[in-house]
Structures are given as C-alpha cells and as structure tokens.
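=== Structure Prediction Worksheet ===
Name of assembly: unnamed complex
Input type: mixed (protein and possibly other molecules)
Chain count: two
Listed entries:
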Amino acid sequence: MSLLMLYLLLAKATVTSFSGTTSFPVIRHDFVEHYHQLTDRQLNAAIVAGQAAPGPNGLYIVSVGYFVAGVPGGCAGMLAVITPPFLIIPMLQFLGRWADKPRVQSALRAVTIAAAGLVLSTMLPLARDALNGPLPLAIAVASFAFLLVKQQSTVLVIAAAALAGLAGQLLS
Amino acid sequence: MLDEPVAVERPTLYRIFLTYLRLANLTFGGGDAIMAAIHTELVTARKWLSQEGYAISYALARITPGTNVLAFCAGSAWKIRAWPGAIAAVLAASVPAGVVVILLTAGYGALQSSAAARAAIAGTLAASVAMMGTAACNLLRPYLDRRRWVPAVVIAGTSFGLLQWSAMTPIGVLGLAAVTGIIWRIPE
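=== Predicted Assembly ===
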C-alpha cells in the first residue's frame, strides 16, 4: 500500500469521526476486513499504544500507520490525525451560529450514539482474539469495572494488565 | 474572526508552542481536563484568549471531525495568532505524543520474541478490549436519561446490528444515523 493511499484511508477514518475512538470501526473495516493490511491483534495493540501515550485520544491511528508501513506510515498516521482538526478554522469564520441549530445538534447526537453501537460491534472480533482463556477474560472484566468507575486511569489499567499477564505466565 | 487583543502583549509562536505542549501532554484526565487547563491558563491567567473566543472554540470543537481536543487547540490558538498559531498549537499537542506512540508500537514488535513480554502484552490486549467497551459505554451513557433513552437504544442497537449482520459500511451507518437525527429530534 502506498503512503498516499495509507494517508487517505486513515484520514477517511478520522474525518468521519467526532472523537478519538469513534474512527475505530472504519479503521477495522478498511485495514482488517478489506485490505488485509492489519490483524485484529495488531489493531488491538495499536489501541494499547495510543492509550498508553500522553496527550489526546485518537493517536492509535499513528500506531496503525506504523504497523502498515513503519516510520513513514506512522508519519502518515500523524498527518491523518492532525489534518481534520484544522476544519474548525473555516467553521469559526463562517459557521459559528449554524452549530447551535437544533437539527444539527440532534444529528451530531445521533452520530455519537451510533458510534457507540459501531464500537461495540467492532470490539467483538478483537475480544474473540484477545480473550482466549480465563486469565485474559478476568483481566478484561476487572479492567472494564475499574474504568467505569475511574475513567481516566487507562495507563494504570494497562500497567496492571501487563503485570497480571506476566504473573500468570510465571505461575503457570 | 480573530479575538480582540485582551493581553498586554501578543504571545510569540514559540510561547504558544510551549504552552500548548505542556497543557496538552502533561495534563492528566483526557480532553475535557486539557480544555479546562487551557481555560485556566489562557483565559484567566495569561488573558491571551477572551471568554467568548474560548466558548465558541469549545462548542465548534465538539462538531469538528477528528479528535476534539486537537480541534479545540487549533481553534483557540487561531483566535490568538491566526494560522501560524493554530499550526504551532496542533503540532505541540500531537507530535510529541505521536512519537511516543511510534516508540511503543516498535517496542511491541521487538518484544514478541520474549515469552514473558508476550504474556504481559496479552494482558494489555485483554485490557484494550475493556477500554473499547468502556469507550462505547461512555459515548452512550449521557443519552440514557428519561427523555432520550428510547432514541439512544434504537439508534445504538440498529447501528450495532447493521454493522454486525448487514453489508453496510461504518460510514454508511453513521450517515444513516445523521439523517435519523435530523428527522427524529434528540433533545439536548
């Protein structure tokens, strides 16, 4: 896959999402199902890398680019992440009042709600790949319960999950 | 339109870069915490940005495609120093973390030969599934109140089903949801 194609596919995912992780279903559809450039395991690892880093959500796209084409692919991913946010500038210039229209707001709410359904649907194949025994299942359930209460503790959860996986290996 | 100058002096691009670098990469708590920190520093303390400039950037960042907090950085810094300010802020907020992501991904590949590392990575992949589940819950949770739970359940359930059992692409599902939201008004 050429870098331009990689950038365009990643940008297609970021430009059609309205928060960090809602690009995920589009990414999986294109890179795992359609072009077979990525496995579910690599996509899952990309999410871990994105969540473990500081800064904004959504940087897992950089990791996806790296998996597909190394450092140049990571740069293409970076470019795909930073391009759509600049659309706010023409919006600031021309669309300030339009954003408050009730129907526009309602459409955006519907897109956000739909994204929740899409993320859940896309999560299933990753769960089938990653939750392949009692220990991973226990780690996932404990992580889910913890994150529901302490939403911003992803780095802590990743570190604890790595330690639990390591402990499971040492004890088996 | 750019903000009326509220600060005594116009900040240099270098100062804008350093400020957004620190606020976006060293503030824990996700996008809302970063935007709150930017309010404290740029509106209240440094007075680079007016309250109105902050508010419109915040509102439009919510409906700008891509990562909300990066759109907010672009919009708020554009209010301060036009396009050069916006570019400096977005690069400061994203590139250092992007480099960390590349290093972590490279580390993932390099660690595959060690059994212990593979076990640790398997643990993180299980946690990642939980993160996706939590992300979906967090997207849906605000809409599960008395006035909106019906459209929330119908739209989320239909989206789930369409992606799972039909040939529709995710973008097609999102487009259908947008049209549904225009026709079926979801209250604020």
